[in-house]
Amino acid sequence: MHIAQNWRLKAQRYRLVGEVCEHCGAKIFPPRDICPNCSHSAKESFEFSGRGEVYSFSALSETAEKFQRFRPYTMALVKLEEGPLVTAQLTDVEPDKVKIGMPVEMVTRRLMEEGNEGIILYGYKFRPMLDKVA
Amino acid sequence: MHIAQNWRLKAQRYRLVGEVCEHCGAKIFPPRDICPNCSHSAKESFEFSGRGEVYSFSALSETAEKFQRFRPYTMALVKLEEGPLVTAQLTDVEPDKVKIGMPVEMVTRRLMEEGNEGIILYGYKFRPMLDKVA
Amino acid sequence: MREVTIVGIGQIPVSEYWTRSLRHMAHDALMAAWQDSGVEEVDTLYVGNALADELSDQKQLGALVADFIGQRGIAAARVEAGDASGALALHQAYLAVASGMYDTALVVGVEQMSAALPVEVISATARFLDQEYEATMGATLNSIFALMMRRYMYEYKVPRDAFFAFPSTAHQNAVNNPNAMFRKAIKESTYKRIAMISEPLNMFDVAPICDGAAAVMLCATDKLPVLRHDGPPPVRIAASTVATDAVAVHDRQDPLFLEAAFISSQLAYRQATLNQTDIQLFELHDSSSIMAALSLEACGLAPRGEGARAAAEGLIALDGPAPISTMGGLKARGNPAGATGIYQVVEIAQQLREETGANHISGAQAGLAQSIGGTGATAVTHILTQL
Amino acid sequence: MREVTIVGIGQIPVSEYWTRSLRHMAHDALMAAWQDSGVEEVDTLYVGNALADELSDQKQLGALVADFIGQRGIAAARVEAGDASGALALHQAYLAVASGMYDTALVVGVEQMSAALPVEVISATARFLDQEYEATMGATLNSIFALMMRRYMYEYKVPRDAFFAFPSTAHQNAVNNPNAMFRKAIKESTYKRIAMISEPLNMFDVAPICDGAAAVMLCATDKLPVLRHDGPPPVRIAASTVATDAVAVHDRQDPLFLEAAFISSQLAYRQATLNQTDIQLFELHDSSSIMAALSLEACGLAPRGEGARAAAEGLIALDGPAPISTMGGLKARGNPAGATGIYQVVEIAQQLREETGANHISGAQAGLAQSIGGTGATAVTHILTQL
Ligand SMILES: [Zn+2]
Ligand SMILES: [Zn+2]
């Protein structure tokens, strides 16, 4: 299901490509057609560094159908260093080791499996920033 | 999916149990809470004979997901001898042998398979009336 | 009750969109309508959509689209009634402005179907039927159309080929519509041999699976003077009416009569104080050839049982007495379910604004758009007139 | 704009219905409201529903329900905005009557969730979120609540146990509500050890999966004299307002502030020309403890970051300054998604009609009901007063 939808969002999901508003300079992720900050049209691509910190997190095991195979996992809000918040999973870390404010970086991982055709969707997750942890 | 829903409709689906309106005498199928004929509440059960004739029919092979395994099949509108029209499949007959006005009778057959749990749903279909065909 | 006017229209070509999702499509149509309108501020948004729940895994489209067009905060709602969703959303927006609570309203009909597998679309649109007594029995939307069509042919002694008039007219008219999906005329010989979908309904009898978005901006007529004056001519909503019927065809008084379409059109003629003869074009719900025939009859444009024959005899042609599908209709412009009702209204506005080029209905001062959910359970009729 | 009055209310107990389907549940609530009302003829029907598409395989609920209650033919619409669907349907019905086009309107919120598997419900309600940037990442509705709750605890230094006030009050109040799902008080010791759903959100922090239907009959106030006179006291709709926010929490200006709820409540206070202090009870959207806390703050009943603490200190009790969930709220009466907003309004009407027994808020002359879609994208506020 929704092969096109997934394909469409590849740039965002694989490389955190958002936008920078030519009018007010706001860094925007996810990308939009209109800047939520100044209401001008936003069209200039901007690739985020992928670095940020944990703004909030939660470990869960009651998931939607497509995520059943991957549970339990930890959802988070990550504050990117360029400003925006992103909803994403944390990876390579036990939930009880996560703290608000912890530095994280983006990696590309398997997100879910689409039921009927077994299509696998990849996208961004965040893991503890290696240099900061070491 | 919808186990309860199927269970709920068993009487209708297995035995064509509808209603007879105590006010206007209308024979009602499918059952309702309010008689569509006179707008009084309809509560008295009535089991239809299951005999009727083909009002219209169509052979199809593009089906919904749960019916993929059963295609092709022939849908029909059947006019029950007590009055109501019913939407149902025809069975035990090739589509090119079906004619409008053909006498048919109800049988209970497998209707579909529910995806995830493989639940099988049974219900009414109609076949050519045996004594009339012979 | 305040008078309501259409001051802006917008649409994107009906097509298959692989790089724009639902919110982008809605955005593009809405921005076009807004830009067209001369309106400064939009007070509320209505989204007509039938299938985003299952085909895009998305609900709350009102809020989603409001935010995406930069209008975070405004009132917004999603309205659903199968493929009458767009028209029904327009009716709600009409009431919102008529009530006096909102002065301006944006309405978008949007649908994305092509990204899903055909079997997913068939499963989803089967939900326009009565689940417990039609869909559960194996019925699909097209199979019910087929049952109606076969009975119609039998009861009124109509040959199947009489239905060719509907796709033929639609495709012919779509040639000149840059927003139509199929811009190529079709031949009767092809119609006769093309594959059956559900006997006697063939592939040319039904509208395609497709994506689209169309939008209008409404403004209270008493607020029109506030608009900038260089905009296109406003179009008056002379009637906006809704009626319903049993969802299951087997439950209807007459399975071959679209009662909801009849009631809704009668209410509309009355509200607009117009007769059929005062109206120069009719965008009807030709989601299948049989629905087109029955719609003609329900709207009083042909006697019962005569819709298909009358169409074959020229009733519905651009220069006929009751032109339908003037920009291609659902059949050739496309039927992106929840968007369809707004495309119809946009096209009538285009006709009244004389923006339809070769397809212009000369002397068009009033047009009727009728949108139907599924096989006839919901019918929404709008009559638009020049202001 | 015409004044609009609630002249009839109806509800069925929130529960798990195995022998009645969606149409039956809607029927029962609607008939109760109609019978309660003294109205002869109903002009239009609105159905608020969030999940029938996937959980009952049914669309076009407007027409389906209109027919099933014996009103085949009337105008009908289904409105959807997640678990604000019922309240948003009421807003549309309010506009319909206010506009002058319809004199009376029935509104039902109806939802059937218990027949589906829990994982199906979780998948379906995840569609209240932003599919492309929340649900696709693995987020469920509860997990987003959890993210908000953890950040709230961190930012405002609130202990988790402060949230106990919400389920505690809700369950306590539900004891006296025959239509509530959970009619038993809960203990703090249980709250502290019950299983987590999505840390720090536990099973007592969220409303249950359930079925329900609630309905109201609206009548234009200028048509009230036509009604029979032995009916219950009519209740005035003093305000009906809607606002939106970004669907995704990460897109909001402040993830811990419900901007839509704030705007919608401010608009409502203004429309009703009432202050918070003129209002004696508040049915808020306590779909989770954190939503209850944030709703208190958005409606101006507690300072930012103080909602949970204020609740723990008695703010929300039946005899407190801002009683909420007076009949059990979403938490204990139950949250049948699209039905919830109508249950809230019915309960406020019961309070104003003094039909709430031991839970009656003494001196209640005005009540506010606020319904929220998902995590805050759609907010609908109604203020009801004695006529
Ligand atoms: Zn900007
Ligand atoms: Zn009767």
Q: What descriptive keywords fit this protein?
A:
heterotetramer; A: about 130 residues; mainly beta; C: about 375 residues; alpha/beta; Peroxisomal Thiolase, Chain A, domain 1; nine-stranded mixed sheet; binds zinc ion
Describe this structure in words.
The complex is a heterotetramer, with 2 copies of chain A (134 residues) and 2 copies of chain C (387 residues). Chain A is mainly beta and 134 residues long. Chain A has one domain (3-128). Chain A has helices spanning 3-8, 10-15, 130-133; strands at residues 17-20, 27-28, 44-47, 51-60, 73-80, 85-90, 103-114, 119-128. In chain A, the strands form 2 sheets. In chain A, strands 6-5-4-7-8 form a 5-stranded antiparallel sheet. In chain A, strands 2-1-3 form a 3-stranded antiparallel sheet. In chain A, a hairpin with a 6-residue loop joins strand 1 and strand 2 (27-28). The longest helix of chain A is centred in the N-terminal third of the chain and has 6 residues, at 3-8. The N and C termini of chain A lie far apart (41 Å). The mean pLDDT of chain A is 88. Chain C has 13 helices and 11 strands. In chain C, strand 10 and strand 11 (378-386) form a beta hairpin. Chain C has helices spanning 22-37, 52-55, 61-68, 85-99, 118-125, 141-156, 165-174, 188-193, 259-272, 289-298, 307-312, 329-333, 340-352, and strands at residues 4-11, 44-48, 75-80, 104-112, 196-198, 201-202, 211-220, 235-244, 281-283, 366-373, 378-386. Chain C has a 9-stranded mixed sheet with strand order 3-2-4-7-1-8-11-10-9, sandwiched between helices. In chain C, helix 1 crosses helix 3 and helix 4 (85-99) packs across helix 13 (340-352). Chain C folds into 2 domains: 4-115 and 209-235, 3-Layer(aba) Sandwich (Peroxisomal Thiolase, Chain A, domain 1); 118-204 and 238-386, 3-Layer(aba) Sandwich (Peroxisomal Thiolase, Chain A, domain 1). Chain C is globular. Chain C has 387 residues and is an alpha/beta fold. The interface between C and D is large, with 60 and 60 residues. Strand 3 of chain C pairs antiparallel with strand 3 (75-80) of chain D. The complex binds zinc ion (ZN) (2 copies). One zinc ion is lined by residues 21, 23-24, 26, 35, 37-38, 40 of chain B.
